[in-house]
Amino acid sequence: MNIRPLSLLISSTLLLGLAACQESASETQRDVNAARQEAQKNVAEARQEGAQQMREANDRLTATADKAGDELQEAQANVDKTRAEASYKVLATEAKETRKIALEKCDAFQDEIRDRCEETAEANFDAAIDAAEAARDRAVAATEDDMRRNNENF
């Protein structure tokens, strides 16, 4: 058997079958238009979904930033209060030690002069403690005022 006529017959049959399946130009254009419309619809939906996801991500970022800002503000206030308290403790210790030294010096005197020396040492101590407490209280009040103002702004 000769293969050539058989392969020619098969090729011809396939070509005729494929030619019968070919779309007309108007059908092709209609399919292309439908594909374009579908593509535009899908792209528009993807853009909407992307925009929604971006809005949600931005909302989460804003909430996180607000929370972080609040936490940072609170941490700063705690640092400021700790600083004020530590400063007070140093000033109070200095006042106590200065009083001790002054009272030791008063031992060099007798009677009324010694009493006045001790009264002066105590008065100086009280004034130093009052000043240290006032400085601490001002610092704490300023910190609390800052916190209040910042909370009012948000």
Write up what this structure looks like.
This protein is an all-alpha fold and 154 residues long. The protein has one domain. It contains 3 helices and no strands. It starts with a helix and ends with a helix.
Question: What brief labels describe this structure?
Answer:
single chain, 154 residues, mainly alpha, 3 helices
Q: How many individual domains?
A: 1
Measured on Cα atoms, how large is the radius of gyration?
A: 45 Å
Q: Tally the helices: what do you get?
A: 3
Order of helix and strand elements from N to C terminus: HHH
Portion of residues within helices: over 70%
Mean pLDDT: 87
Amino-to-carboxy terminus distance:
94 Å
Work out the oligomeric state of the chains in this entry. Answer: single chain
% residues in beta strands: under 5%
Uncertain segments are none
> Using DSSP, what is the number of strands?
0
How would the global form be characterised? rod-shaped
Main beta sheet strand tally, sense and closure: none
